[in-house]
Amino acid sequence: GPAAAIDTQWNERHLSRSALRTYLAGQLAETFAEPIESRIEGILNPLADGSRVDLPDTVHARATFHRLLDLLGRPGVEDADHANDVGRVLAEKVRDVSTQADAKLAAVIVSLVEHPGLRLAGAEEAIRLLRARIEEELDFADREAGSIEDQVLRGFPILYYRLTAPLEGPAGRRVLPRAETVADIQYWAVNRYHAMLARACANVYRALIGNIPEYVREVNFCRSQLTGFLNQLTDVAVSLPPAGGVCTEVFPDGSDSVATAAAKLVDALGPDERREFENGLQARIRNELRAVVSVCVRPHDHGAAFTALVLDQAVRYHDGRTPRMPAAGALLGQVGDSARRENVVAQLVSAAAPAGLGVAAVAATALTVIGVPDDDSAADLRELIRRSSQGSSFLTTTNSEDILILRETRGVSLPQLPHFTAEVEVIRTPDGRPASAHSRRDVPWARVTTN
Known about the structure:
Layout: H1 2-12, H2 17-32, H3 36-44, E1 52-53, H4 55-72, H5 85-111, H6 119-164, E2 176-177, H7 178-234, H8 258-267, H9 271-288, H10 292-297, H11 299-321, H12 327-333, H13 338-351, H14 360-364, E3 365-372, H15 378-388, E4 393-398, E5 404-409, H16 418-421
Parallel strand pairs: 3-4
Antiparallel strand pairs: 1-2, 3-5
């Protein structure tokens, strides 16, 4: 999950405080061919012999101190104002660690979009966990660095004056206690180094926390693209015959639309079934489109293929797990009560006549034709339709899936069908004469007059 993904990268990139400090110290040791504490000690060793520092040794002490300033810089001064070797190397290592960690963390967060069961929610949770962890480490590192820096800065001015002020004393001689001088320089140098190391750790965390908004933007970009793909799937027109008195839609479980029926079908899936579907979908995405993120980055190239793949996978998955119920059985199964069932069929039969005629269509119907799949449930449906047809001629045939009811109605004048005759004035024969909306356009109809 998100926590495990962040933990893995946190450990691999040496991002805990102790691991980061050890890593940076090791990088310095590799660059300088020895640990920095050893280099400090090596610079101070020539001053360690004897008990006093006379004039020549005082000059030597000054040179030694300046070597350490070149190595470690002056506390309280920006490295740009006083370049130093350790500061320069640490800045390079901070950039390297931050850049490499950023690349890996960004890749891990975005990769969660490819994980079934995680997706965008998993990526957002990873960002939340990462932000909390970096903020905690940054707060501690800042406080640690600040505490050491304050300690170093308090003693530095006196030490600096002792070792850089003009020589005083008889004949221009100034005598310094050797052991005390060496101890003071070493104490300052080691603590200065530790302060720089602590500040470098804080700078790594500061760089990482500054990258969090970019991770958020990347996830939001994927969310925006996927939302667009989802809207395209939602807007896909369901292939149904035209309605308006010609087609009556009957959905399972009392649903009133394709969307409602589909939502109930999805809601009925358990967690294991959802995961199985997602695993299959992800495998196809990886095989055909490489990754979800690749689709989001190049929507114009892969968007259409992606939506088609999702739709095809959904159809395949549900077709293999949805019971195949005969059309007649599905229709009759919606209503358990026999009287109500007969009433529903009667309404369907009435709706099969031209819309707008109402009950008059029943008496005017001369022929009722039905087509139903040839299965066990069709016989009951045919009988209900026959009773509802009220004595008209009755003809049956078989159909592959749909239930078709056709009612031929005779003796109806055009004024009774205003919804059909509204187009009469705009549909014309080849010679320019108005024609019925239901005339065959390939027939050269002759004008019928009263003469």
